[in-house]
């Protein structure tokens, strides 16, 4: 939805249960112009859900039940790929079985698409998986699961990113404590400082970052430029309660960036 609201053509590959909530979710996503033709309805499993606690500072804690998404198979992914034919960017996360994520990343490689992986929920990943990822977007917990490094500041983020680059990822966009995000690739790095906003709910901020990054990379923007838009979208998402409420359209994102003097680098 984050990418679709910015004008990207988006197809969702996943699964819901054959229940009322699953049908409502599909209607809601489709209303944001997301193609849901490749979302499976699983008869024997409920639609996934999440119970989210938010404290006074906007920080969150999530208890998730993955439900039907655990039944998404590589065959489902390959069938969707045959229907989609090609994509500019493939964005994945880890709330579906890892073998299905790998199938999606391999399909992306076969079609020449860029790949983004949001490694949530945090698990360890093999080097074989990381080599399929053009941009890896871990938060502190996810970075620790992947590297063993406690990321609390920019220096620790740089160490964790260096390890992940060595293991095969193309670039790393890593949360560096409360000060911002660090974008690191083999030839350099780019700092994305935290944008000062009145944060009420961090739920969906990482999703806003990932979806916005995907949308602007699909347009042909440079990684630095796309990351600036993504960083702003993530900050904006924290100013509203709920994972979807704070997802902006392009006009809203541009107004926010102008109001906070966020300037994108040359493409």
Question: How does this structure look, described?
Answer:
This protein is α/β, with parallel strands linked by helices. The chain has helices at residues 2-5, 20-31, 74-84, 98-111, 127-130, 140-147, 154-166, 205-218, 223-237, 250-259; strands at residues 10-11, 14-17, 34-35, 39-42, 49-54, 60-65, 89-93, 114-118, 135-136, 171-175, 180-185, 188-193. Helix 3 (74-84) packs parallel to helix 4, helix 6 packs across helix 7 and helix 8 runs antiparallel to helix 9. The model has no long low-confidence stretch (mean pLDDT 93).
In short:
By secondary structure, the chain is α/β, with parallel strands linked by helices. The chain has ten helices and twelve strands.
| Span between termini | 25 Å
Largest sheet strand order: 7-8-9-10-11-12
Uncertain runs are none
**Number of beta-strand segments:** 12
């Amino acid at each position: 939805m984050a990418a679709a609201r910015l004008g990207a053509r988006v197809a969702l590959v996943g699964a819901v249960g054959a229940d009322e909530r699953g049908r409502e979710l599909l209607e809601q996503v489709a209303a944001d112009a997301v193609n849901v033709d490749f979302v499976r309805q699983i008869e024997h499993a409920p639609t996934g859900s999440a119970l989210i606690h938010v404290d006074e500072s906007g920080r969150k804690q999530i208890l998730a039940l993955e439900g039907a998404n655990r039944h998404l198979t590589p065959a489902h992914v390959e069938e969707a790929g045959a229907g989609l034919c090609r994509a500019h960017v493939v964005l994945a996360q880890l709330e579906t079985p890892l073998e299905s994520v790998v199938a999606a990343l391999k399909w992306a490689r076969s079609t020449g698409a860029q790949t983004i992986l949001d490694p949530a929920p945090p698990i360890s990943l093999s080097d074989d998986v990381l080599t399929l990822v053009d941009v890896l977007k871990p938060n502190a917990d996810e970075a620790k699961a992947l590297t063993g490094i406690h990321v609390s500041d920019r220096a620790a983020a740089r160490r964790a990113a260096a390890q992940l680059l060595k293991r095969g990822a193309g670039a790393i966009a890593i949360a560096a404590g409360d000060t911002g995000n660090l974008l690191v690739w083999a030839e350099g790095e780019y700092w994305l400082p935290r944008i000062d906003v009145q944060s009420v709910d961090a739920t969906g901020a990482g999703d806003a970052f990932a979806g916005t990054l995907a949308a602007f990379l699909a347009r042909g923007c440079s990684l630095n430029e796309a990351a600036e838009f993504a960083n702003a979208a993530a900050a904006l998402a924290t100013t509203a309660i709920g994972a979807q409420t704070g997802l902006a359209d392009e006009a809203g994102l541009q107004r926010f960036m102008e109001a906070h003097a966020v300037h994108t680098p040359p493409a």
